[in-house]
Amino acid sequence: MSYAATERFGVEPAPNGLALVQDLLNTIGVGGPGYPDLLAKVDRAQDWLDTALEQWSRTTGGSPPHDIAVTERDLPRLRALRDRLRGILEHPSPSGPAPEPTGSLRLSLSSDGRIEAHPEGRGVGWVTSALLSEMYDAQRNDTWRRLKTCRYEKCAVAFFDRSRNNSGVWHDVRVCGNTVNLRASRARRRQQS
Asked: Which of 54, 120, 164, 177 has a Cα-to-Cα distance from 183 of 20 to 30 A?
């Protein structure tokens, strides 16, 4: 099992549960039929969700409900959540009114004295709670700022920036970075001639 939406782009998953958020972001359709939108149809969305939650469970030790069935009514909600999160990564400052995703968490005290958050809800509502919980943990652990989307406008793949100074802007420097830099270089040469 893997985070299939992320790994289809050749990107390493983010650490811990943040990989679930990254995987949702990478359900987008990019570059034609080779990388379809995994939230466009119920069967694709269900396959993605089952695989992602199984991997999330292995990574975090969490236990998602077994009865999460994606319906046609859930698809717009999942896409809206994905788009809202992408908007936050691409434009961190508020950009106007947008639906605010909400979720519920149950807090518990572990045997070693740590507070643990457990997502609550039913169906896609539980998924929203789990995603928001992982985002909250990433913000508290200061790893949220390392989750980014590729700056190449035709790409926008979500990646976890593992650079020492958090300066990465391309999900793959050899592909997207070279493309953008080559175009910029050609444009400069045209202006100089």
From this structure: 164
